Amino acid sequence: MLEDLATNHDLLFIGIDALDECDLHERRWVLSLIGTITKKSKAEQSVRFFLTSRKEQDIERSLNSAIRFNIKAHHLERDIQSYISTQASKLGKKFEFTRERKLAVA
Prior knowledge:
Elements: H1 2-7, E1 11-16, H2 24-43, E2 46-51, H3 57-62, H4 73-94, H5 99-105
Parallel strand pairs: 1-2
């Protein structure tokens, strides 16, 4: 189905999160499919993949020519804090927290 979808669009972005969490058999299948689609897309259309994963040897070997970003926990700290503050504010409004309670949550 994914291969058909990829061959019927001029521009397609496909995101796969946590590839490392797939079992080895599924991971090999996904990596093989990515290779097949990528080879076809160079000649026919443009398909882009965005994958997230921990470093695993089989994934690194299969995607050796891919552009990589090494994201560490400290890169995400501000985003996580911002998300927590936003959610705490929404909860405070929904449950009518007192000012003191809002400060304690944030």
